[in-house]
Amino acid sequence: MIDTTIIQQHIQPNSTLVVGFSGGPDSVFLLTLLHELVPKLHLKIIAAHLDHEWRKESGKDSAWCKKFCDDRSIAVEMERASNLDFDIKHNGSQEEIGRKLRRFFFEQLATKHQADRIVLAHHGDDQLETFFIRLARGASIAGLCGIKENDGLYLRPLLCLSKQEILDYLHHHNIDFLTDPTNTDPKYLRNRIRKSLIPTLQQIDSRFLKNISHAMHHLEKTDDFLKQSMHDLLPTIKNSTGIHIPSFLKLHEVMQHHIFMHLFIENKVFLTPSSALFQEILRFLKNNKTQSHQLHPELIIIKQGDYFYFKSL
Prior knowledge:
Blueprint: H1 5-8, E1 16-20, H2 25-41, E2 44-51, H3 58-71, E3 75-80, H4 94-113, E4 117-119, H5 124-136, H6 141-144, E5 150-151, E6 154-155, H7 163-172, H8 189-204, H9 208-237, E7 243-244, H10 245-249, H11 253-266, H12 275-286, E8 292-296, E9 299-304, E10 307-312
Parallel strand pairs: 1-2, 1-4, 2-3, 4-6
Antiparallel strand pairs: 5-6, 7-10, 8-9, 9-10
């Protein structure tokens, strides 16, 4: 009998779940556990498979995923990236573009099926790798907190497990899965971190993995405190026109950054801001001659008297 207790605590009875399904070991493990919970919790699960069409053999992978679901009577939605009505408005890494495409596809299905959650198979190793990727790119405290278990519509119930635990389980139960050759390609930063950096740090200090997890937990608590402080502060410097510029410019830089991030999300512009972008905004706010400025293909900042606001395009 499959032990489903690690994810059962996260799932409400009678839920409709869209489950990201690539056919790799992580998503096979997640879908298998959720399938076992269907009769117990009266779940409706829809496996969601997106073919990015980046590899010649991707069509065969899609066929494998379809058969895996059909053999278990699991509903599955299949799509090719080229069929999605989704315009990527700015450049990014292939990993980032793939993430945006998947989110668009998953959220379309969530709307179609009136799903309660979108469930993804990120695990503890993904969390560590993401931490170092973001550290290398100069992320903020919020970025270094890592992948969130509960993030709006999204649920990631496997963050407490390691990749090895997932593989051991699948091998023990003779459950087949696909292997993506790009997961070992050194041209991707994530793979270099997985194969070189993390093993080296583990050799240096056997407590490394546990200590990094503790550090991320402390960062998350700090970020929660800053977010709460920001929400308490905003009503004192904001009105129906926007944010009061003189009051904003007196704030500590950390609080300014948190307010910017809050406003980006409020305008549904999900960009990864750089220090250069923050400085660009501050220069604009201090410049009395300019009243509007386009920061991004999807975002413009506007001054009206002593106030400023963002407008999405």
